[in-house]
């Protein structure tokens, strides 16, 4: 089950909120959240619920036995988590390299990937490593740890939350009227990004992929670029908004990545919690940039190979990761020259290479990938009548995507939010504050209505990152 699902929106979530806020006491509220999270997971993959519970218990038990002066106590849980992830996500891929497949050419195991496993595995690894470094004591109870791992707002697609960021909130938090209001608005904005923009961008991308023209290949690449941003950032907005309603503050995951003027800056703004994980738990432990340029390049190679494979057990993801490794290494050498260019030129150069990266990412079939790139750079005819029809029909959506991924919505929000006096309680509204709050409420209500109308009689496209 996903957030962009009518059952979730109008049955699961309202019932969870009602029970959560009616039951007093933080410990009881935590139990309600755990029960709701396990039910949420069960409705998606009931056969993997025992795996989730067993993994959580083993990690809690091992975490309670970590000692900062004994490295073996942290190596064991890290290795076990990686082995579980490798079993479900990578075994078929690596066996396939050696030609070991089932009779029909599919994977040997034939097992679906447990939802959220890439996210909660990294959270458990971070939990053990940080406990080993002495950043905090292990979770005081299994229920606290289970809540940290399984909390449904962040289960499917993150963000990757570190225990140190929510430890105190698990033990004691408050859901103020302002936090509930802001969280609800954030959720509705994220839902609209997913249902009203990302889903329609994907439909346009799918139609363009059927065309064998160069223009169609470029337009499909553009629509996928918008699709993946609005889907993933929208789902992250929903997760952060839900967390805010329940009293949690999750880390931000996106910061206008399509306004970046370099590849380095892009990766500081895109999926920030994943980037910080690889920086803190892979790149820096390997030596970072402290052991010379050759070692730094090797460390970057390892990080980006792993980043690609984290997204999926397929050659295109590995190629995608190494593509950005090459770009980042080259950019470090060319940065003095690039910094002399005007902002618009640097933005266009950056987005050109990002767009090519999304072409690699979107094609799991290498022959199809090669064909798309060939069409983009000269193979066959460039234009066709059907491409013109799709383009005309998609122009309003393209305009919305350009505006929505720019800094304009943030500027408008800041300007409009200037009427709100920061730090005041909701009970201390002035007339302008009331206007601001009512306008946000009506805006969120309108988005919810439009999303509901879009979802009635049609299912939202399953989120891409939910498969990671």
What does this structure look like?
The protein has a domain at 6-174. Helices cover 71% and strands 0% of the residues. It has helices at 6-22, 26-44, 49-63, 72-89, 91-97, 117-132, 142-150, 152-155, 163-171, 177-209, 214-245, 263-269, 272-286, 293-311, 315-338, 343-362, 366-376, 385-404, 408-417, 431-455. It is globular and about 65 Å long.
Write the layout of secondary structure elements.
Layout: H1 6-22, H2 26-44, H3 49-63, H4 72-89, H5 91-97, H6 117-132, H7 142-150, H8 152-155, H9 163-171, H10 177-209, H11 214-245, H12 263-269, H13 272-286, H14 293-311, H15 315-338, H16 343-362, H17 366-376, H18 385-404, H19 408-417, H20 431-455
Key traits:
468 residues; mainly alpha; 20 helices; 71% helix; globular
> Structural class, from helix and strand content?
mainly alpha
The major beta sheet can be summarized as: none
Q: Choose one word for the global shape.
A: globular
- Oligomeric state of this protein: single chain
Helix content estimate = over 70%
Following the backbone from N to C, one meets helices and strands in this order, namely HHHHHHHHHHHHHHHHHHHH
What value does the Rg take, in angstroms? 23 Å
The number of helical runs is 20
Q: Strand portion, in percent?
A: under 5%
Give a count of the beta strands, DSSP E runs of length 2 or more: 0
Mean pLDDT: 90
| Distance, first to last CA | 15 Å
Question: Unreliable segments (pLDDT under 50, ≥5 consecutive)?
Answer: 103-107
